[in-house]
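Protocol step 4 of 6: structure prediction from sequence.
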Amino acid sequence: MEPDRVTPAATEVDPFVRQRTLAGFGEAGQRALADASVAIVGVGGLGCPAALYLAAAGVGRITLIDSDTVSVTNLHRQVLFGPDDVGERKVDAAKRRLAAIAPLCRVTAVFVRLSAADAEATLAGHDVVLDATDTFHARLLIDDATARLGIPVAWGAVQGWHGQVTAFGARVRLRDAFPAEPELDLDVCDNGPVMGTVCGQVATAMATEAIKLASGAGSSLEGRIEVLDGRSGQWRSLPVGAGQRDVGSDNA
């Protein structure tokens, strides 16, 4: 019989005690996390920090979905990887690192680039999807699949010094902000400049959204997008919903 993955024995040190005693989270929140399944699409500058925090927080199952390999130019922001991982599949290197950090988390590596043919089947069965991709084609694909599946999404994007984070669910979807794929896809991190620490700021905010969605604690950002200017350190909030579309060129 598998040991209780949430409540430690009396002789054990509780790794989640600082969360379990948190007002508004508590035992129920920690148990919900342990029972939760989160799919992370994109194991890059956003997916790596988010996966690290979600696994450490006690999420029971994480599926890593990516079709890329580690490059030396990734290392300043993709914090699950080091020089020895260059050339390896990102999902495999990330799975190995997460196993060392959070052995209670069951991590599945899926080496695939999502397409319209397989997105629903790949994402089905998860409680939350974290969209850490870097093209609008992929983002809209995920939005359409999760809308049909009824799965909420923790969403983020970064370009240069700027970032955005929000959650999409039953009331508001990505297509409410961006009803069509932009003509110019300016947000591809691998081909443009990006501040690594801004990726970390946005990714941890995304992980918090995923934790809230999975546990039911707090309220999500659904209905507004938080926009970060890393140069000034300031965040601003933009409403998103029917009739309030296109949050501008900051999305990336």
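Step 5 (inspection) to follow. Residues 76 and 196 are 6 Å apart (CA to CA).
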